[in-house]
Amino acid sequence: MTLLPIIIAPDPRLKITAKPVKTVDESVRRLMDDMLETMHAANGIGLAAPQVGDKRRVIVVDVVDEDAEPDPVQMANPELLWVSDEMLNQEEGCLSLPEHYAEVERHDAIRVRYIDYQGEIREREVAGVLATCIQHEMDHLDGILFVDRISSLKRNMILRKLSKTKKMAAAPA
Length: 173
Ligand code: NI
Hints:
- This protein is an alpha+beta fold.
- The chain has one domain (about 10-170): Peptide deformylase (Peptide Deformylase, Alpha-Beta Complex).
- Helices cover about 30% and strands about 25% of the residues.
- It contains three helices and seven strands; from the N terminus they run αβββββββαα.
- It has helices at about 25-40, 130-140, 150-170; strands at about 45-50, 60, 75-85, 85-90, 100-105, 110-115, 120-125.
- Strands 1-2-3-6-7 form a five-stranded antiparallel beta sheet. The chain has a two-stranded antiparallel ribbon with strand order 4-5.
- It starts with about 25 loop residues before the first helix and ends with a helix.
- Nickel (II) ion binds near residues 94, 96 and 140.
C-alpha cells in the first residue's frame, strides 16, 4: 500500500466532478486500500478520491463509535436514496483544509447505495456522525467542500489563511 499526498485547498483539483467507476476491479481496490491507509495515517475519519488527485467516485470512511467495532467502509459510486427531514449541526474538519473547523448542517440520517470492496451493490441506512461523514465525502465527488456550506465570510477567511500557508510553504527559505 502507498501513502498518497493529500491536496490542500484552495486547489482546482478539489473542484472537479468525479466520474463513476464501471466496476470495482483491482485498480479501484488498490485506490481504496491506499486511501484508507492515507486517511488513517493522517488521523482522518473520511477521504474522497479527488483529495488524492484521483477523478473516480470513490470514498472511504472509518468513524469509530464508542459502542461499535472499527468499521472501515469503502464505497464506489455512492448515491443517496433517501435523506431524513431532520437535520444535524456538527463541527466538521477536512484533511484538505487542515486545522480549520466549522459547524455544518447535514441530514441526520441517510440511505446510501454503493458498490463495496468486493464489487457488490449494497444499501445502508446510517445516522449521526457516520451519516455526516458520508455526506461530507460525497460532496467532495461533486467538487463541494464543507466551507462551501458555511457563510461566505467564514469561507473566504479560511481559504485566505490556507493559501497564505501554502505560499509560505512554497517560498524559498
Ligand atoms: Ni473533506
